């Protein structure tokens, strides 16, 4: 590719369109907007109903393009796993759902490459922190308590079982 223009945006999985935000940014470029939208929808179809980060690089001369799809945010993955639409407006006062520890492990594995943690233990703690910020408890307990129990080793057997999956 020669000179390229990069467009970064969030789209609903499988539902990108030629309208905003993509259409206006792609319009002045030589890429076929319909082809770009089709490529995005194909690559994001597994994330239907979720906001997915997408990067489109377009060659300014030829119109050739590449689409890169990121993973949805941790909170979105949690909401999808729990079958809820969003988090609590007052997460410290109003808890809206409870998540099993194994679900936190599953989300941690899905997002492992995007998290700062060096191991499953740390990744699960990050996911549990996101759950806390959305008003979601884990195994009926506040996230802070679960994180402390992880540090104390109370979840070691469950973490070892998850690492074996």
Description of the structure:
This protein is an alpha+beta fold. The protein has 2 domains: 4-69, Ribosomal protein L11, N-terminal domain, CATH 3.30.1550; 74-163, Ribosomal protein L11/L12, C-terminal domain (Arc Repressor Mutant, subunit A, Orthogonal Bundle). The chain has helices at 22-26, 33-44, 74-82, 101-110, 120-133, 143-151, 156-163, and strands at 4-12, 51-59, 65-69, 97-99, 136-138. A hairpin with a 5-residue loop joins strand 2 and strand 3 (65-69). Helix 4 (101-110) crosses helix 5.
- Taken in chain order, the helices and strands follow as EHHEEHEHHEHH
Helix- and strand-based class? alpha+beta
Largest sheet: 3 strands, antiparallel
Radius of gyration: 19 Å
Number of helices: 7
CATH architecture of the largest domain: Orthogonal Bundle
- Assembly state of the chains shown: single chain
Low-confidence stretches: none
CATH fold-type name of the largest domain = Arc Repressor Mutant, subunit A
Count the strands? Answer: 5
Strand coverage percent? 15-25%
* Order of strands across the main sheet: 1-2-3
How much helix, percentage-wise, in residues? 40-55%
How far is the N terminus from the C terminus? 40 Å
Question: Can you describe this structure in just a few lines?
Answer:
The protein is an alpha+beta fold and 165 residues long. It has helices spanning 22-26, 33-44, 74-82, 101-110, 120-133, 143-151, 156-163; strands spanning 4-12, 51-59, 65-69, 97-99, 136-138.
